[in-house]
Queue: 4 jobs
Job 1
Amino acid sequence: MTKDELTASHCTPRKGPGDAVPADQIGELAQLIGEWRVEREAGQLQREFRFRDFHHTMGFVNAVAYMANREDHHPDLEVGYNYCRMRWSTHDVGGLSLNDFICASKVDALVR
Ligand SMILES: C[C@H](O)[C@H](O)[C@H]1CNC2=NC(N)=NC(=O)C2=N1
């Protein structure tokens, strides 16, 4: 898969351990979202974004929220004046599903 294909993909319902990304496929997907930290043990993707001020931070957060609602897949956010720390994981899978990589890639496209 290419980065563009990942970004253009959409989330689908993924439930249960059978929908987790197999360990031997995580590396290949991780290469496509190189700015994210892939925490295999915790089963999550994490990235920190920095902004000029609160207006820019919240513009980004709102764009992410809009995308997440459309995809029905939602990040954990830690937001401050000029930063947003973001984590993606799939609760229904208990770790990483393809949905997490899709959404991380879509977020990358917002700040490109
Ligand atoms: C029914 C609905 O698809 C699920 O509750 C979705 C909503 N958003 C979600 N977001 C995340 N991050 N993980 C989930 O498992 C999840 N499940």
Job 2
Amino acid sequence: MYLTDPIEALKHQLDTLGETAKKGFVRLSTPCQVDNLVGWLSVQSVLPHIYWKSRDADAVEHVTLGAVKAFDSLVALQADLAALAGIGGEQPDYFGGMAFDPDSPGWQHFPGCHFLLPRIELRRQQGVGTLSLNLRFDDRCPDTEIAQAHACLAVLKAEKALPRLLPYIYQREDRPAQKEWAAWVERVTHPNHLGHTPKVVLSRQTCLTAPEMPNPWALLAHWQAGAADCFHFGIQLTPHEAFIGCPPERLYKREGRHLMTEALAGTTRRGQDALQDQALADALLADKKNSLENQCVYQQLLTQLEPLSSQVQMGEAHIVKLRSVQHIRRLIHAELHQDVTDQQLLAVLPPTPAVGGVPRESALAFIHQHERHQRGWYAGVFGRISHTSSDLAVAIRCAHIGPEAIRLYAGAGIVAGSQPDEEWRELDTKIADIMSLLGMG
Ligand SMILES: C=C(O[C@@H]1C=C(C(=O)O)C=C[C@H]1O)C(=O)O
Ligand SMILES: [Mg+2]
């Protein structure tokens, strides 16, 4: 029997699932055409909602609903990955992220670490959509699992157009304000401080309040349309808040034993025309302060990868052009040793000096002592993990949308040669895209 309604098709597959098929992880799939995946996600009542699209040109677009299983620690996640790999067969994708400081995450409702195996997945690659239902039979009663899956399918709704973004008048408050920021930069760039801590990435929270908040998914849809070459993500764990972002920076991508990572640090604005844009790019590559920001990141990545891998190779410094900013980037490739897991990589690599500093401990101590806003999942990790491959972004260029405020986050690497006013302007260029979408540009 061939059913054209994808939900009916999945129900049918669920009802006719053979007893021998009720083993380990099972994914039931059917073709499904949806115009706008974010629009489809936005109308669903089942939480959590996750949106994930990697930055590669042909990347799969994923939206997920609900959770078959959720993990608040990397140890638990890795144990589950290993358990399913042991059973064999198709392996699932887990989606989620981690706070900047997993031991003290700071945002209510956002655990230090949260990855989940979704109940429902809708994915699209090269125009082809697939709706999937995920089930687990290894550690639970099959009848209960099937009943829960049915309950989830029963409440799926048809796609609706996303609401329009209305131009609200927002009140803006920066934490810290510019004067205090300047004092921090002076302190970090004092020769005594630079002597023991050459880089600290300081951050600012820009709090925007208005009587009404925009729909976070409509905001993400607009934001991503103007952010090619970036990762796109959104997560909604509870009804009235969401965390979205379009980060340009990869934490790492793993395909089997092959690891790709990068040092993305050093920033300038875009030019008014092609000539000025090129002049700004050339100046950025030649600039000592910006090169030092980048160097701090790649040196630490190379040091951390050394014991975990072989054949570590780094490419030339080059420029990445985004809508409002240009960055220096160096790509790094390595072959991981046989037993190295995502759990290990995620325990070692973040926070990189792109968002923390060097040495890590003293940079983090400075951040904790001075920043009064909670970074939460800003500057943390977001992405997809599976047995065969993983892809994770550094959660920058992001917004937390709550019931009363939108909180934007931006950081800047403070090193020898940093000037308070220039670094303050750099924070503004980093939030320029989302600010203009909100009518605040
Ligand atoms: C910390 C952020 O970005 C980081 C800091 C950069 C810099 O200071 O030049 C550039 C890219 C990222 O490494 C952010 O966007 O919030
Ligand atoms: Mg910088």
Job 3
Amino acid sequence: MDGKKLAGEKAAEYVKNGMVVGLGTGSTVYWTIMKLGELVRGGLQIQGVPTSRRTEELATELGIPLLDLAEVDEIDLTIDGADEADADLNLIKGGGGALLREKLVASASRRLLIVADESKWVPALGKFPLPVEVVPFGWELTRRQIGKLDCDPILRMADEAPYVTDNGNYILDCHFGVIQGAERLSAALNQLPGVVENGLFVKMAERIVLGFTDGSVEERLPKSK
Ligand SMILES: O=C(CO)[C@H](O)[C@H](O)COP(=O)(O)O
């Protein structure tokens, strides 16, 4: 069975009438958004805050009323995917290129719920290269500076040109190997001029809904909370 669909649809149960809901990006939360579209057509009243143009288009097509992040003080609940999650629910995100808006929306949220299939659950973060969003101006220099933190950043490409985020920036995919101190690494990256944001989400997620190919769904909380 499709673990992404199972997890995505299950998470929609957390959305209640009247909520402002952060809508993540990717192929797992796609199923949450589809479900929410169905519930909205059936009378559920929510307002969504999208984390990407892609999600904005999908939610609009489904008739989910949307708010701009600038219009809200606090989001009740955000549901989003992840590229990796460890037992403390620290995450790598940004495989879909939306990490900056995803982190802004997650930071404005009272609760962050992650949806993923079993393949995203890892003993330690770092097999998936960490996406780092950088400004295009002088990106080669930023790449060299990030490289000094012990990785070899690769410029993400799309159709033989640099991939450009919704914010007009580039992404460097950084292979650090096993990430021990996620908080420290995140701070070190973000203090480099030229780095806009990185895909480490540390101590932000409240729970993860994991879907398994055998058809089961499990919910897990951070181990060290
Ligand atoms: O961070 C993301 C997009 O920037 C996604 O949440 C992440 O890449 C997971 O995507 P998927 O659910 O398609 O596996």
Job 4
Amino acid sequence: MSEPVLSLSTAGIGFHGRTLWRELDLDVAPGEFLAVLGPNGAGKSTLLKVLLGLQRLDTGTATIEGRPARRGSPRVGYIPQQATMAAETPLRARDMVALGLDGHRYGIRWHRRTMRRRVDALLEKVGATDYADVPVGLLSGGEQQRLRAAQALASEPAVLLCDEPLHSLDLHHQQAITALIQEQTQAGTAVVFVTHEINPVIDSVDRVLYMTPEGHRIGTTAEVMRSEVLSALYGAPIDVLEHRGRLVVMSQHFEGHHCAPGHPEPSVQAPEDPRVGVGPHVHDDDHRTHRENHRDGEVR
Ligand SMILES: Nc1ncnc2c1ncn2[C@@H]1O[C@H](COP(=O)(O)OP(=O)(O)OP(=O)(O)O)[C@@H](O)[C@H]1O
């Protein structure tokens, strides 16, 4: 591996006596795309906060480009979890994207025209040209999310941290944003992508970090997204099935609608859904349908 751009060494953190994760050793190379998966409350967003310098580790170290992770670094881009902006926010869409441009990059102040061209290109890439001059507070959640992606990519960061950036985007815009992030990896940006569903990004992912309260695993998708590995991590039987290049993760045991006591459930969705993956609620009916499909040979 080339010199890592992001490193965690024996990192650990917890709150109020509860350990979220510990002994986390991770090196991410320039241009690498790391997906971070795991149940609710496993500490995925906390990991991003550590890398943003917003949260201190209890043990170990976190470095970006060899220096301790710190707040406000222009070398780190961040697409936060979606939150609706107030209707009266005094920013147009293009202003929000421009905020992501480092006005003094490499010590040279951006020329106003260069800046406008760059903003226009970013707006176009996320499909936001039509509402470039609309106040952000009047836009839909998905439209605002596309602007956050454009803003985070504006400075071509060394590390891009994404906290469920595809949440609430329609399929077309999921693909557009994923393509944009993928393109950024070609330029050398390392991506840490927290998600509940691997399938929308499965073709972009180099490695997976899967976190659970019992421990974590790091490896390629094929190494980590396996029945034995997830069963060991959850401490309960989990099946991982592949269907047309997409993964279906399902629990073998349900108590009512839950997979295992104390664990938010991994998802089961109809295998025909191209977006199936680790995610929301599981119904016994879904389970039966899937099993029947499996018996009928529809799932390989
Ligand atoms: N500053 C804090 N003080 C106390 N507890 C915290 C703090 N930050 C996070 N936590 C707790 O740590 C746990 C992990 O939170 P985190 O948001 O990292 O989980 P997550 O894996 O991103 O979950 P989700 O998938 O639901 O977004 C939660 O129980 C949360 O309440």
